[in-house]
Design brief:
Layout: E1 3-5, E2 9-12, H1 20-25, E3 32-34, E4 39-43, E5 46-52, E6 57-60, H2 64-70, H3 77-84, H4 89-97, H5 108-117, H6 123-137, H7 150-153, H8 158-163, H9 170-180, H10 185-188, H11 193-201, H12 208-218, H13 229-239, H14 247-258, H15 262-275
Antiparallel strand pairs: 1-2, 2-6, 3-4, 4-5, 5-6
Helix pairs in contact: 4-15, 5-12, 11-12, 13-15
This protein binds a DNA duplex (13 and 12 nucleotides) through helix 6, helix 12 and helix 13.
Length: 278
Amino acid sequence: MQYEKTKNKIIVKDKTCFNIAHILECGQIFNYEKLESGYIVFSKDKMAMVKEFDHYYEIETKDVNYFINFFDLDNNYNEIKRALLGRYDFLDRAINFGYGIRILKQDALEMIVSFIISANNNIPRIKNSIRNLCNKYGEKKDGYFAFPTLKALQQISESEFKSLGIGYRSCQMVKAIQYLSNVDIEELKKMPTKEQEEELLRICGVGPKVKDCIMLFGLSNKEVFPVDTWIEKVYNNYFSKERQTNRVRIRENLVKEFGSLSGYAQQYLFYFERSGDK
DNA sequence: GCCCAGGGATGCG
DNA sequence: CGCATCCATGGG
């Protein structure tokens, strides 16, 4: 991807593989705000302001190098699309619809917490819970609150989580965070896929689907296919002749089909299916 | 009031 | 193993 950087700005010139609405609204991130002038993106203790112009995007931030990596700018999405196109008509249409999607490289702890909250929940409420969590327990920065550190999270009780709107997942959350004090989260990224899965599934509140989301968005592992209610619909409506409701089997079949491109395919499909613009 | 949302834990056979 | 049930909560 072609981009230029200055001390506090990144200029992205290729709008065919970078669309900020596609990137932020395709379901991989909850911690952002839409303004009239653009989007504010939060990650860990950092933020960036993204503005669209006719022939380029401008990403303004104090942490230029962090967000070059965060937006996966050194990855070639034309190659990825080329490899995915021409297999299924529905996937072709999904890629055409969400052409500007990029898989963000987000913070692993933030993804673990966020996707435990996401279970059997809806996106507006997930966003609210995470915003509440930052505002109450995150370090105050210049004009915003950081995502809470592990240390800060460890001080939060079950009833405090409930007051944030996390509901019945609050008990799981306390146990998960407790467990994480004995896990080197950065080490997870270096592990083989199989070991990442085993380790993540030991965390309370993390099952097959949440595990896949953490690997895809937090560990940058694309060899996963998160299957939720939307992907289950996609699978049965467009990919398989026989109806399958076992999500583990649906996942197996999709990963077998898309291999190391699974994570990319999943995001195009999820965004398109949820858009209601089919 | 009912159904659904980026599901997971638990218990039962 | 596979399967059913329960779990808070807000929106449509």
